[in-house]
Amino acid sequence: MPDRAPQPVDRQLPTDEARDLISLVRDIAQREIAPRAAEEEDAGRFPREVFTLLSESGLLGLPYDSEYGGGDQPYEVYLQVLEELAMARLTVGLGVSVHTLASYALAAYGAKEQQAEHLPGMLGGGLLGAYCLSEPASGSDAASLRTKAVRDGDHWVITGTKAWITHGGIADFYTVMARTGEKGPRGITAFLVPGDAEGLSAAVPEKKMGMKGSPTAQIHLDGVRVTDARRIGEEGLGFAIALSALDGGRLGIAACAIGLAQAALDEALGYATERRQFGKPIADFQGLRFMLADMATQIEAGRALYLAAARLRDMGRPFARQAAMAKLHCTDTAMRVTTDAVQILGGYGYTADFPAERYMREAKVLQIVEGTNQIQRMVIARHLAGPETR
What we know:
Layout: H1 16-43, H2 48-56, H3 75-88, H4 90-109, H5 112-124, E1 129-132, E2 148-152, E3 155-166, E4 173-179, E5 188-194, E6 200-202, E7 216-227, E8 231-232, H6 238-274, E9 276-277, E10 280-281, H7 286-314, H8 320-345, H9 356-366, H10 373-385
Helix pairs in contact: 1-3, 3-4, 3-6, 3-7, 4-6, 6-7, 6-8, 6-9, 7-8, 8-9, 8-10
């Protein structure tokens, strides 16, 4: 209904290269992603061709080393790319974030030979990744995972089930955390498992409230054999690798949340300035003006928070507390803003003819993935007050 075009976000970018990169992303988003988003989400269709295009455009490995096909971009820039993609379609923005998460273990902890062999395909060769930590009985308590990897000569045999896997069943590679030793976090090791490995299969994708175009499925590993050359890092280091990956991944979720919230604000603002009641645009009514002002303020605060955390990461400084804060605030903001967008559109907001209801359904999952927001509060509190008394 609204024909008022949203204004692009005014971004503070560190280099001309970064500004050109954002322009490229916006062009792809407007031409290839946004026009089909509603139809494909409704049909539950994953846009693999978009990810192929993103890979060919150098957008699937932005924060990684150019030696292996990455983009050498700071997190400050990479996250704003994610935000732009999520504004057009959350399935795409979140998909790029998950792929980046899946590539992290090898990029940060892999041996040079492993990186040279696998990273070029992962970062710029059209491959798509998935990250396998959660299990049916170990979600927030990830250190209690049960998937086992048993050494057999120069191979490992992996058996178990992973749950809630984004790109489950369509990924070309899986970064899998499996137990190789004692109970608890010190007995876990990371492995790079090819998507076509014998014994690896995917369950029927989950039927979800939102993000229907992004497949989420259990992954079954039934005696999957991988060589020791596909073990990432030292034995027993897997849980530390997983937590380190999640710190960056939480910033990815925060950026996607702000992108989704911005899309909802743009939709609400366009509608409010075009819709007339009592002889004037509804945007003239103070109640709605204040809602729009609050929505915009929450979005700007969230953007500043995730960028501040990203800059700490780029400087090599600790950022886990700030990442948890950003994930918590930005995803709560996305839920509030999308709910308010539906309210501003009134009855139209409740229909599938407008994207506001889809934005609201999609926002909910962001408060859950990569550590629920209750877990984020626990992480933040531990940084402030120390571990809980046992």
